[in-house]
Design goal:
Layout (H helix, E strand, L loop, with lengths): L2 H22 L5 H6 L6 H12 L2 H14 L4 H25 L4 H8 L3 H33 L4 H51 L4 H4 L11 H11 L13 H17 L1 H4 L8 H37 L7 E2 L5 H9 L2 E2 L8 E2 L12 E2 L4 H8 L4 H39 L5 H24 L8 H22 L5 H23 L27 H17 L6 H11 L11
Antiparallel strand pairs: 1-3, 2-4
Helix pairs in contact: 1-8, 1-16, 3-8, 3-13, 4-13, 4-16, 5-11, 5-13, 6-7, 6-18, 7-8, 7-16, 7-17, 7-18, 7-19, 8-13, 8-16, 8-17, 10-13, 11-18, 11-20, 13-15, 15-16, 16-17, 18-19, 18-20, 19-20
Length: 576
């Protein structure tokens, strides 16, 4: 069976599965819609959380970034997984014990202020919309390549699928759909990795293959990769830092605390029955995430090596243009891969020297999707990768859209504007808000602003600078006042947005930056996408400073903080 037909069948079957699950698990109440009835098993919730978390950025982009950044790309591995440890230890159990539906609801109650709740909603929407742009872009790119439709058509199909299972099922439908999507995406990621690891090293476990010798030689795979990239003039793969040690630390920390502050991830821990289950499901999520994240460095290194050996089959002898393989021609059609025969020798010279290099475009996002084709794997594996990439993008898009919809319907409408509406009216408002959120995300996907490529890291920076500090101070400090929390959130997100826009330009439009996007103009050499950690420090400092000069929180709020932190059944000193 040809690749195109097989891809249609595999992707079609997975979509039928998602829609079937959504119909079976449709929400009948607001509790079903927001937190899946609060009865999801920790292992199921861990799997759904992993799918919610592992977006198109994890599945499609991360290995591509590591493939070209080498050691410097490890910031994504350390930041995104380390954040889960923070979430499991410092936030998830306490928020579950509090037991309400959303993050802004906790912030509004803890800081005894509707204004604080509104500020939290605004921060949540800014973070989630920034993040969802990248997901919709991922849906459009994956569809346009594998279903051979244009980008716009691919995006419309993706929006329709998300609309049905998110609007119909709410969190209940999304949870069970994400469990299926996790199974699809993890198989789609690991099966090609196993094949390629066997091809290159003879070891079927990619994580071990990365540190193994090449088949038929005593040369280690990473040594071979270091040699070929350095021969072409690139930096050594295994030691190349991301700009500087301080920048790598800031980037990692920004991604870590951003992970722990992302509302669509936190909301998942409201779906389990007990506090103990929240901690347990965070642990299970880390296990399920680790399967992909420990495989990614191997996928990245092997993809880079395969790409270079395609472009330079023999040392110093580059690919003949008329002999370029079919996968190369397929990706050329998407505009994500391109070359120019500058010297007219009929070959595609690949080099770190821009004067010599004839590969005019190698989009990093194609590495995972093209890798099975480059390695000449069977068509069913390539079709499975297409389904996996779409599952990753769709699962996270659904979680983000639910977070946006619940912030609008539950926190703004029910919480502030019309507190007396019935549950039925609130559920209808939630679905309408979700439909508008999908339409808005689709518009941004069809007309992506210039910063679409950097949106994922930026979204984490915004969550790190606004939501994470407010949650941490809300749980662990009885002295933080409503004025302190509000000032902190506004200061943190404002500083981060200002830094990004002054270097990258307003909406990342070239020519509108104040200081220029070069390391020489950055604060302590920290790049804009890593600035969230500085915004978080500003948030903490402002919140503590303002709280010192304002009246203490009411006694009942201090008791609420005490109650959230103390384990059930324990007694405190003042009980005696």
């Amino acid at each position: 069976m040809d690749l195109q037909t097989l891809t249609y069948i595999v992707v079609g079957l997975t979509f039928a599965l998602y829609l079937g699950i959504a119909f079976w698990a449709r929400a009948g109440s607001t509790k079903d819609f927001y937190v899946a009835g609060g009865g999801i098993h920790p292992i199921q919730n861990g799997m759904a959380t992993a799918a919610d978390w592992m977006s198109a950025a994890s599945f499609i982009s991360m290995a591509g970034l590591i493939a070209f950044m080498g050691y410097g790309g490890s910031v994504f591995l350390m930041g995104w997984t380390g954040g889960y440890v923070l979430l499991a230890m410092l936030l998830a159990p306490y928020l579950r014990k509090y037991g309400k539906f959303t993050v802004p609801e906790f912030i509004g109650d803890r800081f005894y202020s509707k204004t604080a709740r509104v500020v939290a909603v605004v921060c949540l929407i800014i973070c989630s919309v920034t993040y969802v742009i990248g997901q919709m872009k991922g849906v459009g790119v994956a569809f346009s390549r594998f279903l051979e439709v244009d980008y716009d058509t691919g995006l419309y199909v993706g929006m329709t699928i998300v609309f049905f299972y998110a609007v119909l099922g709410g969190m209940k439908g999304i949870t069970y759909t994400q469990i299926a999507q996790y199974c699809v995406l993890i198989l789609a990621y690991t099966i090609p990795a196993i094949f390629i690891s066997l091809q290159l090293t003879g070891n079927p476990i990619p994580q071990l293959g990365l540190g193994s010798t090449m088949v038929g030689t005593d040369v280690y795979l990473l040594d071979r990769l270091d040699q070929v990239v350095m021969d072409l003039g690139f930096n050594q793969y295994t030691t190349d830092v991301r700009l500087s040690g301080l920048n790598m630390f800031a980037y990692t920390m920004s991604l870590m605390i951003g992970t722990a502050g992302l509302p669509h991830v936190i909301i998942r821990f409201f779906t389990v029955p007990k506090v103990k289950d929240a901690r347990s499901s965070a642990g299970w999520a880390l296990v399920f995430i680790a399967i992909l994240y420990t495989t990614a460095p191997a996928v990245a290194a092997m993809a880079r090596l395969n790409l270079i050996e395609t472009l330079e089959p023999e040392p110093g002898q580059f690919l003949v243009i008329d002999e370029r393989p079919q996968w190369f021609k397929n990706w050329e059609k998407t505009g994500l891969l391109g070359f120019e025969d500058k010297n007219g020798d009929g070959r595609i010279q690949y080099s770190a020297d821009p004067e010599v290099n004839e590969m005019t475009k190698i989009d990093r996002d194609i590495m995972v999707l093209a890798n099975p084709e480059i390695a000449k794997l069977p068509n069913w594996v390539i079709a499975l990768v297409a389904a996996g990439g779409l599952a990753a993008a769709l699962s996270t898009a659904a979680g983000l859209l639910l977070a946006i919809a619940s912030a609008i319907s539950h926190d703004l409408l029910k919480g502030i504007i019309a507190p007396n509406i019935t549950e039925k009216t609130e559920l209808m408002a939630s679905r309408i808000a979700m439909a508008f959120a999908i339409a808005g995300a689709g518009y941004l996907g069809l007309n992506p602003p210039g910063f679409a490529a950097g949106t994922v890291a930026l979204a984490f920076g915004l969550a790190a600078s606004s939501i994470f500090p407010a949650l941490m101070m809300g749980i662990f400090s009885k002295r933080i006042t409503k004025e302190g929390a509000i000032a902190g959130m506004i200061a943190g997100i404002s500083v981060t947005l200002f830094y990004v826009f002054q270097h990258k330009g307003i909406m990342f439009i070239p020519g509108t930056s104040f200081l220029g996007d070069t390391p020489a103009n950055w604060f302590m050499g920290i790049e804009p996408n890593a600035f969230g950690v500085v915004g978080a420090i500003v948030n903490f400092v402002v919140a503590f400073g303002v709280s010192k000069v304002t009246a203490e929180p009411p006694v009942e709020v201090q008791e609420l903080v005490e109650h959230i932190r103390i384990p059930a059944g324990a007694t405190t000193a003042h009980d005696h």
